Amino acid sequence: MSAWRSLFTYNKYASITARALRASLKQEERVLAEKRGVTSVRYQKWENGVGGTQTLFDAQAVAAEQK
């Protein structure tokens, strides 16, 4: 059994290794890699078995509103 498995989940492990890899890249490649690392989330409210409109969740806008 790997030592990291006793400390955190696979998703956390993958996040840490990806961050370390991006940090080791040259400036130009690092910027491109960081852009690919941005994720987005869409959600929709379901009522009576019918899905509503999909809404893009913008975490930065929510964080700005909370400040």
Automatic annotation (TrEMBL):
GO terms for cellular component: mitochondrial inner membrane; proton-transporting ATP synthase complex. InterPro entries: ATP_synth_F1_esu_mt, ATP_synth_F1_esu_sf_mt. It comes from the Eukaryota. It holds the Pfam family ATP-synt_Eps. GO terms for molecular function: proton-transporting ATP synthase activity, rotational mechanism. Belongs to the eukaryotic ATPase epsilon family. This is Mitochondrial ATP synthase epsilon chain domain-containing protein. It comes from Panaeolus cyanescens.
